[in-house]
Amino acid sequence: MTASDTAFCVHCGQPADGGADHPACHNPRTALEPPRYCTFCARRLVVQVSPLGWTAKCSRHGETASG
Amino acid sequence: MTAVPDTDVLAYAREHVLENGVGLGEAEVLEVLRLPDDRLPDLLALAHDVRMRWCGPEVEVEGIISLKTGGCPEDCHFCSQSGRFPTPVRSAWLDIPNLVKAARQTAETGATEFCIVAAVRGPDKRLLAQVREGVKAIREDGNDIQIACSLGMLTQEQVDELVEMGVHRYNHNLETARSHFPSVVTSHTWEERADTLRMVAEAGMEVCCGGIIGMGETVEQRAEFAVQLAELSPHEVPMNFLIPQPGTPYEHYEIVEGKDALRTVAAFRLAMPRTMLRFAGGRELTLGDLGAEQGMLGGINAIIVGNYLTNLGRPASADLEMLDELKMPIKALSDSL
């Protein structure tokens, strides 16, 4: 998959043309949120936040983690 | 309540709180919360003096971790982990290796506290077994960080079991004033929470009890809450500011205004001169970087480092650098034991 495959906003799960960052969801609150929805399929992610990072797992598309 | 003239409340606090270490009563806290913005610098300076006089310059640093996320049966209206609201948070259990890793990373920041949290009404046998295994594994990793827990409402047997595991502090927030609680939570009562706190204190564990500012409470109820917390003589009071979580009944609540947040921090300090006041969730949204620093100079003497349970926080390094710049030493583990 490539970035061009992304179709859904990671914050609200709604369609977002052109990437994972739905412009309408850019706000100070979402800046403090890990992703909640898979950007490829909009499934809700299983998210684990730890003091220094986070992981977010989609049952179909696997796990992503904070840098 | 006997009101103190608002022009005098800081002078009154200077004499009673700063000099004698006696916390303000409800009427005086209310006067403080009603001080105009132009008195805020004086208020923060006094709260800082009180903190330095009765607590000292050290700052206790803590990391928190969610052992069991989401799917909670309770209906706390602020909480994205309630299973009753259509929030995006999915249920998850943390495994022991990742719990140990999080504790190790927390200790490496210089933190002396690690709080294990679960989104539950109260712990069942499975959860307590997981906590027991986790505490044991953290110790076997060579990590002597102090371990606290927040697992909801407890029975006496569960309190005793946590003491026996070596859990030294228990967090159970009353969340808000007793008079406001029924509009925030309907699935259990303020009194049920207070019962757990009483058992925790009687068992010799340190009591950590705070709440969330900005859940529709009046300024009078903030004063009420400060005094109700003071009556518990808690070791620690975590102060959260509401993060309006999508899908919860409070999704569209306004974020607490920064000056109100700082005024509340200072008022709580004047109500509880000797208690550890911890900056917890929501400070990034409410106060930003500059406000966090003002809070540290306005009565706060403890922080949660890094991320929270479901939300992200400031980078740990940013807070540690801030403390360094403020010349506030991190409380050492040897001071805690």
Poorly predicted spans of chain A: none
Task: Estimate what percentage of residues of chain A fall within beta strands.
Answer: 15-25%
Tally of individual helices of chain B: 13
Q: Please, what is the oligomeric state?
A: heterodimer
How far the N terminus sits from the C terminus of chain B, by CA atoms, comes to 40 Å
Helical percentage of chain A: under 10%
What's the shape of chain A? Answer: globular
Order of helices and strands of chain B: HHHEEHEHEHEHHEEHEHEHEHH
| Class computed from helices, strands and strand pairing of chain A | mainly beta
**Residues in helix, % of chain B:** 40-55%
Q: What does the overall shape of chain B look like?
A: globular
Q: Provide the gyration radius of chain B in Å.
A: 19 Å
Strand segment count of chain A: 3
Key traits:
heterodimer, A: 67 residues, mainly beta, 3-stranded antiparallel β-sheet, 0% helix, globular, B: 337 residues, alpha/beta, 10-stranded mixed β-sheet, 10 strands, 43% helix
Task: Report on this structure.
The complex is a heterodimer of chains A (about 70) and B (about 325). By secondary structure, chain A is mainly beta. In chain A, about 0% of the residues lie in helices and about 20% in strands. Chain A contains no helices and three strands. Chain A has strands spanning about 45-50, 55-60, 60-65. In chain A, strands 1-2-3 form a three-stranded antiparallel sheet, with no helix packed on it. In chain A, a hairpin with a 2-residue loop joins strand 1 (about 45-50) and strand 2. Chain A is globular, with a radius of gyration of 11 Å. The two termini of chain A are about 20 Å apart. The mean pLDDT of chain A is about 85. Chain B is globular. Chain B is built from 13 helices and ten strands. Chain B starts with 8 loop residues before the first helix and ends with a helix. Chain B is an alpha/beta fold and about 325 residues long. Chain B has helices spanning about 10-20, 25-35, 40-55, 95-110, 125-140, 155-165, 180-185, 190-200, 220-230, 260-270, 285-295, 315-325, 335, and strands at about 60-70, 90-95, 115-120, 145-150, 170, 205-210, 210-215, 235-240, 275-280, 300-305. Helix content of chain B is about 45%, strand content about 15%.
